[in-house]
Amino acid sequence: MTLKERISDLFEKYSVQLEVEEKAEVKFAVATLDSGQEIQTDAEAFAVGVSVFVVNDEGEQIPLPDGDYTLADGSMLVVAEGVVAEVNEASEEPAVEAEEDKEEEMSEVEEVEASSDVLTREEVAGMIAEAIEATKAEFASQIEDRDAKITELSKQATKSISRAPKMEVQPPVDLSKLSLTERVAAIHNQFSK
């Protein structure tokens, strides 16, 4: 069982659900180009000097390429180096609609509220520490079991190893005092063992 699984089990045991708590609300302006693509800025409205970008499927902010862009409300944006260089407003009627759209978009901005069931960082850290300690204890017992098996197997191995019989060391023979037949027999006996 991995550490991640242990922590998940611990959270399930205590019915813990992690939630991200954001304290500051993020407000940014969103507009739709006449092509249907949405563009955004981290400012409250599109104005000269604010950065403008497109958010891709992974949530990455990509600066809008340089050029002239027509918004769905009829206004024009001129973008240079990812920054709005010029804003040309549309006629009065679409401007009223644009203000209504901005109000709708602002009402769509979600504010994350803190729940009374949210755990503090200290409580979560304590739970994780418990899971880590339990895992350490389990690993320690597994290491002790492994060491015991290694010791047992090494004892068995030393018992089963047969030792070669000891060779009898014979004193050297002075061949100069022997006859030819005795010399051949002594050499033969020396190498045949």
Report the span from N to C terminus: 60 Å
Given the structure, what is the number of helices? 4
What would you call the structural class? alpha+beta
Amount of beta strand: 15-25%
Describe it for me?
The protein is of the alpha+beta class. It contains four helices and seven strands. It has a three-stranded antiparallel β-sheet with strand order 5-6-7, with no helix packed on it. A two-stranded antiparallel ribbon has the order 1-2. A two-stranded antiparallel ribbon has the order 3-4. Strand 3 and strand 4 form a beta hairpin. Helix 1 crosses helix 3 (121-160). It is elongated and about 135 Å long.
Key words describing this protein structure:
alpha+beta; single chain; 193 residues
Spell out the blueprint of helices and strands:
Blueprint: H1 3-13, E1 29-32, E2 38-41, E3 53-55, E4 61-63, E5 67-70, E6 76-80, E7 83-88, H2 92-108, H3 121-160, H4 180-192
Antiparallel strand pairs: 1-2, 3-4, 5-6, 6-7
Helix pairs in contact: 1-3
Q: Brief description of this entry?
A:
This protein has 193 residues and is of the alpha+beta class.
